[in-house]
Every structure is written in C-alpha cells, then in structure tokens.
Design a protein that fits this description.
By secondary structure, the chain is mainly beta. 7% of the residues lie in helices and 37% in strands.
Length: 577
C-alpha cells in the first residue's frame, strides 16, 4: 500500500516496467497507474537503486526519487553529465525521449504548431542502411472511433555522432477538415531497418492538443462560489458564472441552493457594461469586480472565491449552454476550458444545481448521485453546423441538446443560432432569422408589429410573420439562402414565398373598362397631342411603382406593357369627332 513499509529497509521491486528512458531521468508506473503494475516504488525507497536488465547483465542507472521517476546518477554527482544511460547498449539505436509543444497547445485547424522532439543516439555509431523517418500522429480517444491521423513526416538526419542528443524543431500542420476535439500526439520512428532496435522508437506528447474551428465566443469566463453554514446539517451554497463578452458587455448568473434541499433561487444580470456589478439575491447582495484583488463581495457570513479559467484542454467546447431539460425545465450550464461544468436547472420554481467535471480527455461524464434530472452529460461538435453541443441524457436514454452561445453580433449581422442573437446587448427578444437549411442567419428583433421603430434603421417590419428583416440593395448583401425582395428586405423565400412575389402594376381586379374610359374622359387631350401625351405620361416616364392587388408582375415592365391604354384613347377621339 502507498506510504507503507519499514523505514530501515529497501523493498525489492522486481517486475516493474520502465515507462520511458531519457538521458537525464527515467519514469515508471506508480500508484494509481492503469493498468496497475505488478510492484511499485514505495515510501522510504528514495535513494534506492534502479537496475535494468540488458544482455543478461544488471546495469545501475538511477536512484529513486518519487513514486514514478528517478534522476540519472550523474545528477547526484558534482560533475558534468556523462553518457551513462545508453553506454551498456551495444546495438545501434535512435531513441525518442520527449516531444513537447512550443507555445500554446490550443490550436485552430488549418494552422501550424511548433513541436520540439528530443532524440538521442545511444549507440557507438549509426549503422542502419535505411535513413528512417520521424512521424507525428494524432488520435482523439472517444471521438469518431479514434482514427489515427498522420500530420507530419520527415527523414531522420544521418549525421549522428555516437551518444549524441538533439532537439529537432518541426512545424506540424493541422488539416483544415480535422474534427474539433481533444487530441493525443505520438512521435514515432519508422523504417529504421532490422539493424535498429525497436525499443525507444516512440514517445507520447506530455499533455494534449486542443483543436478548435475558431476562437472562443467570449473574452473571459469565470466560475466561483461562496458557502455559509446554516446549522450542523446544512449549508447554503451560492454559485457564480460570469461571462465577459467580446463586444464590451458582461453577464452574471447567480444561483443558490441549500445542501439539504428547501430554499433555492437563480437570478441573472444578462447585460451590463464591463466593470463592477451587483445583484440582489434572497440571501443578500452579491457584488463582483474582477479588476480588484478581492473580486467578490459576498453576503454576510459567506466566504469563497471566483476564478477565471479560460485555458485548458476543453477550450474548443467551453462557453455558456442553454436549452430545455427532460421535463421542459430551463437549463443553463457553463463549461470551463478545464472541463468543469457548473449551472442549474429551473424546475417548477426550484433551482437544482449542477457541478460536474470532465476528466482525462473524455467526452462523457456521469452525473452525481444526488442529481435526478439526468444521468450523464456528453460533449460533441456538429460539423454540419460548425457548433458545439452539450447533451443531457436521462435515465431512459433520451437526449436533450443544449446550444452554446456563440460570439455576440450586432443586429442584422450574421449569426449561428438564437442564443447568439440573444447575447447581443443582452436583448432576450432577439432571434436568429435563418434560411431553411443554412447554418447562418441574421440577428434581428423578434416582434415589430406593435412597435415598428423597433427594427431600427437597418431593418424593416414584416407584419405578417411579425419579424424584423434586414434591408438590402442586392441579393449579395443578404445572408446565404435569402433573397433581396422588391421591398428591399432579405427574406427566405422558401419559408415565406408570399413575401417574394412582386405585386402587379395593373389596375385592381374589380375595375372595368368604363372606369378606365371615364377617367380618360375627364382629361381630354387635343387630337394632335393625344398620342404624344400618352407617350410622355405613360411610356417615357418608365414603369410605375408596384401597388398591391394585381394579377401580374411588373418586374420586367417596359413601354410595351402599356399598349393596353392606346385603344381607349383612340376610341375617345372618334366619339369627339
């Protein structure tokens, strides 16, 4: 067992397997490793020998320092590091020791990232006839059956000296169609020929690489909480979710619940300028100012903290998710880049808190024992719509998708979903008006029939569907899938075909010939000027403005379309004669 064993003895661990061998240290499985090693280094074993069996001999390499690692012996001596590690191995071999990402491990697909691969030549000389290659492979456990994607390959340099160590800097390109997710990387030596040993020919990246399709839809995401003891059996817990949006606004969600049930609440300040903010809750005033060393002013008796956690392996998925749960309850969850999920379900006026943690590059997490609203959460990326999804799964296996709030936009600019439009200036009446089958739409106010000015200068009220549509001059100024109508507004003609039909320029259907003749009779023109007058007033002036209630379109109207009036003029002249 861990931290067991006598202090005056060193325990013999004869069956462990080294995880990696480097020129300056080595590592081996310890307590908590999976699979569990047959034996493990224990407490009080520090300083004990690390012996490696090779060619029927035992070689002294290192001295134990932790449960999982040991520095080479030269680091304990006051001298320059000798090449002790590989000296006993007579076979020629190139060894991979370490691969690290230079800079951030959060990258966008289609971009490049710099890696440093540490390699060594432990043999006396390099004798392999083949040059060999260094390859970098990516795989995402739990994503799309975990396919292996090779993103880099280059020949291994031949100019190696005996027992030489090198840092190879490489530029690795990520395919533009690489699925969004959390990836493990592996460096591998290939085609090294039979004369090279097959050991030490691969090494895994320390950590993960997060591949995203675009930047996160927020400037900063912060989570926190405070607690106050009520009595010996119960606590009052208040959780915070703070979101700083890129357009200079902020949102603050505050929700609380008693640890033993009973009283609960949730309040939100959906929109406000960046800076200090306060909110009144049933348990007291909560103030937040992230520019201060003490960012939280909690109600009396509460203590806690709030932290900004924007960096982490779950960065491609982090953000605010909203939707409906298994019982049509309102659900709001915040997923931090570290994989921490916090939020609440609002069911029949009762706030049910949620606090879970994704771990170890997984895309699924089981709910807590006292969480009755759902059994698990799953993360996924919808490639078709280029959007992150957080899915609630209930005990019957039903799935309830929560949408992520995307980067906020201005009214009548492109948006991905209604939640994104709602994020604009905190206006909960905004909607994303999208064409059928399209991923992008326009952000516009939902209702305008009772308030025509609500659409602003960039929009126009369409009374029948009761929405604001963006104005346009040409179809190119409309979102994909929408048309610029005769009224110069962007409309999805598949959804609202009647709005895309241009009204006729002719007379109303119930007006007969006599009415037309009577109107002409009131305006008698001289014989010599009659035809020219018709030409000037009806033909030369161009097509008239459309008017409702017609039976044909004037979208292609010209002078030919007005010849119907000429016989009426000539008939009137004959009567006068």
């Amino acid at each position: 067992g861990q931290q067991e064993g006598p202090r005056n003895q060193l325990l013999l661990c004869a069956q462990n397997t080294l995880s990696s061998i480097q020129l300056n240290r080595l590592t081996y499985p310890g307590f908590g490793s999976n699979p569990v090693p047959p034996c493990k280094v224990n407490r009080w074993d520090s300083g004990g020998a690390v012996l490696v069996e090779e060619q029927e001999r035992l070689w002294l390499l290192a001295a134990h320092q932790t449960y999982r690692s040991a520095p080479m012996l030269w680091s304990w001596l006051d001298e320059a590091p000798p090449q002790m590690l590989h000296t006993p191995f007579a076979q020629p071999d190139l060894a991979l020791e370490q691969v690290v990402v230079v800079g951030s491990n959060d990258v966008q697909r289609g971009e490049t990232a710099e890696l440093t691969v540490i390699m060594s030549n432990p043999g006396l000389r390099r004798m392999a006839p083949e040059q060999g290659e260094l390859a970098i492979e990516l795989h995402a456990p739990g994503l799309h059956d975990d396919p292996i994607t090779e993103v880099y390959r280059q020949p291994v340099p031949r100019s190696w000296q005996s027992r030489q160590r090198r840092n190879e800097s490489i530029q690795m390109s990520f395919p533009a169609n690489l699925p969004v997710g959390i990836y493990l990387a592996n460096a591998r030596l290939l085609n090294m020929a039979a004369t090279d040993m097959e050991r030490n020919n691969q090494v895994a990246l320390d950590g993960v690489i997060s591949v995203r399709s675009r930047r996160n839809p927020f400037a900063r995401l912060s989570l926190g909480g405070v607690v106050r003891r009520v009595d010996d059996e119960s606590l009052q817990l208040i959780h915070f979710v703070h979101l700083e949006r890129r357009h200079g606004r902020q949102a603050l969600w505050v929700f609380g619940a008693n640890s033993t049930g009973g009283e609960s609440f949730n309040v939100v300040s959906y929109d406000g300028p960046i800076g200090a903010t306060s909110m009144e809750t049933p348990w007291g005033m909560v103030s937040l100012d992230l520019s201060q060393e003490e960012p939280i002013a909690a109600p009396d008796g509460f203590s806690g903290a709030i932290n900004s956690i924007d960096q982490g392996q779950y960065a491609p998925f982090s953000g605010i998710y909203e939707g409906e749960g298994p019982q049509s309850e309102q659900v709001l969850l915040a997923l931090a880049a570290t994989g921490h999920v916090t939020g609440f379900l609002n069911r029949d006026g009762t706030t049910v808190g949620v606090n879970l943690q994704f771990r170890d590059s997984t895309y699924r997490v089981e709910s807590a024992e006292n969480q009755t609203a759902f059994d698990a959460l799953e993360l996924s990326w919808n490639e078709e719509h280029d959007a992150a999804l957080l899915v609630l799964i209930d005990d019957e296996g039903r799935r309830f998708t929560l949408q992520r709030e995307e980067e906020p936009v201005a009214p009548y600019e492109t948006c991905r979903n209604g939640l994104q439009c709602q994020a604009y200036a905190g206006d909960r009446e905004m909607q994303c008006y999208q064409a059928v089958g399209q991923n992008f739409g326009v952000c516009s106010p939902r209702s305008c029939a009772e308030e025509p000015t609500r659409c602003g200068e960039l929009g126009r009220c369409l009374v029948e569907p009761d929405l604001c549509a963006p104005t346009c001059d040409t179809a190119e100024s409309c979102p994909l899938g929408m048309s610029c109508t005769h009224e110069r507004v962007c409309v999805d003609c598949q959804t609202y075909p009647s709005l895309c039909v241009a009204p006729d320029a002719g007379p109303p259907a119930d007006v007969g010939l006599m009415s037309d003749a009577a109107s002409l009779d009131r305006d008698v023109v001289p014989v010599d000027a009659g035809l020219s007058s018709v030409d000037a007033s009806l033909i030369d002036s161009g097509p008239p403005s459309p008017s409702p209630g017609s039976g044909c379109s004037c979208s292609d109207a010209n002078g030919i379309g007005l010849w119907w009036a000429l016989p009426l003029v000539l008939l009137r002249r004959r009567r006068l004669c």
